[in-house]
Structures are given as structure tokens and as C-alpha cells.
Amino acid sequence: MTTPEHDRARVLAAARAEFTERGYHDADLDVIAERAGLTRSPASKQALYFTVLAEIAEQAPEPQYPPTARTTKAALGDFARARLARLPLATEKQQLDLLPEILAGETRQAYAQLTNLTAIVLGLALENLPPGAPRMVRVAEAALTAMHGAGRLAAVAPGFGEPFAMVTVCEMLAGLELDDDWGPPHLPYVPAAETVDEPWSPPALPDALRAAPARLDRDGVVAVLGMHRLGAVEEAVRAAPAGAQVTVALVTGTPDEVSPLARLVVAELRADLRAAFPASARPSLQIVHDDTGALAAAAGLPAGNGGALAAAAGLPARSDATEFAVRVAAGRIVARADGYGACYAAATG
User: Fold this and answer.
1) Domains and CATH numbers, the chain
2) What are phi and psi of 206, to 5 degrees?
């Protein structure tokens, strides 16, 4: 008798073989089902494709040697080198790649915000290295743009140019002054956080940025953000008191379609940070994928329509537009905010 976990493993193995052999466009869901020994084909080729890519990224081994970069220039170069190393060579087929035509509709907007989250995390890491700057997110955005361009050219014009020349370009970006100042959101439109005194009983969830259990028992801010609001996490990071733990829980109204993409982007970010930054320079920000309410039920909390961490924080529903945050102190929820500016309001409340 097979189990859902066993069926899932067979489907992923069959899908990986099919995508590798035939590419995304020519892959056939019925063939994948036949290879997996199932009578019904998977519902979404796009979601299955992202899941396969996420599995590959999450299983990537630790770097053989610890990172040696100690400056923003060196770390940005090593980050670019790690990211560009995943590009297919000109002699390889271009199957396992995020092609523009599959980044459509809901997935496209989610990918934009996931890239924004990547830039914020990379910028925070760069700020932890000398010479440093008040904010390095704009530099991170410019570097990601250069890397993305190299990736697109490798896919549509294989053999053109030298993709690893972008490593030198990214190193040079570290010294640019891009008028990168951060300020709080427009305060007249930010509601004040609600003062509360409620127990904080979070579920056990992994920190996807470290592949380790998330530390949700620490004082700080927990931001529950939909896939269209991920950039708001910077407001919690910048506004929170020194030493406060900031955690972002990623939620979506379409977990079957969007969550595999989120897993992929965060797993690749984790791998690149490990390759480029010493542990002391990696941001303390935690990222958790809060797809279901199962862990909330296990913790004795009502799951509702939200994810596990969302339910623990008292959020009744989730969507891609969700922006909700709580302030935690001494094992209690002491402030709660919902809507635009919630991360800033909870962090300062």
C-alpha cells in the first residue's frame, strides 16, 4: 500500500526525468503519470516544474570550503559567481531554467516580489561587511539585474559573451553610490499597532534561509506577508529595536501554484549566501514557508484559512495581499497590526 509521501516522491522523480529529457514545453503530464505508475496525471505542469527545481535547490550540498570574502566587493563577486555557476553551458540543453513564458499571471507578480526579497536579504548581508553603507539594497538590486541579464542571454543566445564577466561587473557595483536611503512608510497612512496581551504559541517551522528550525521563541517581530507584499519585510527589519528577531512568514492564496516557486527562490538564495558570506555576516532575518494550518492544529491553535504561523499570530485568513505583523515579548503577543504599514507599526509599537 502506497502513501501520499511515496506517491509524491515517485511523481517528482518521474517529472525530473521527463523535464530533463524533453524540456518544460515538450514534457507531458500523462507521460509523467505513466512513469510514476499513477492513473491520474498531476494537475499543473508549472507547479510540478517549480517543485522539481525547488527539490534540486534544497538538496544542494554545503560549499566544500567556507567563504573567505571579508569585504562587500569580494562577497558580491562570490555571490555572483555562485549564482552564475548554475547557468547551463552553451553545449547543454536549456531545460531546467526559469523561462519567461512560464512566469505569467500570478506567478510573475510573485516572482517579482520574491526577487525583491532576495535583494533585501543580499543588501542586509552586504551591510554587515566593510566598508559597508547605511543601505546596500540598491546595489544588490543592480547586481541581481546584471546576473539576471546574463542568465537570459545564456538561455536565448547560448555561447554569446562570457557570463562570468558579470562577476567583475558585480564587484565594481559594490563601490557605487546609488543614493540609497531608507525611510519609513508614509506615516499618515500607517495605522497604529493595537496593544494586546495574548499568549504566543507558535508552531514548529523550519527557517528556510538556514535549513534549520526557526527560533520563534525570541522577542521580536513576526511578519505574515502575502506574495505581493514581501518587500514590506524591510520595514520590520529597519524599524525593529537592535537585537530583535525578525521573522517573515510567506503565505499565498494559491499555495499549490506559488509556494514551489517561493521554495525555489529562497533555497537558491540560501545556497548563494553560504557560498559568499561568512556566517557572522548573514542576516538574522528568518524566512518560513507557512503553506498550511496543519502545524497550527498540532500546536492546539485554530488553523482557520491561514497558514500555521498566521493562525498562531491571530490572522484569520491569508491572501497574496496580506500584510500582518505582531510584536512578541516574553512569550506574549504585545502588539498587532494589519494592512499597509503593519510591519513598521508592529516593529515600533
Assistant:
1) 4-58 (1.10.10.60), 72-173 (no CATH), 188-348 (3.40.30)
2) -80, 150
Bond before 131 cis per omega within 30 degrees: yes
Which residue is associated with the grid cell 507557512? 290
Count of Cβ atoms closer than 10 Å to residue 192 Cβ = 11
d(CA 101, CA 87): 18
Q: Which of 143, 136, 138 is nearest to 167 (CA)?
A: 143
pLDDT (tens digit per residue) in 280-291: 999 999 999 988
For residue 299 the three cell numbers come to 500546536
List Cα–Cα distances, 50 to 85, 137, 266, in angstroms. Answer: 19, 27, 12
In sequence order, the β-bridge partners of residue 247 are 222, 286
Tell me the pLDDT tens digit for each residue of 220-255.
999 999 899 999 999 999 999 999 999 999 988 888
- In angstroms, the CA 345 to CA 349 distance is 6
The C-alpha cell of 321 is what? 495581499
- Helices vs strands, H then E, count in the chain: 12, 8
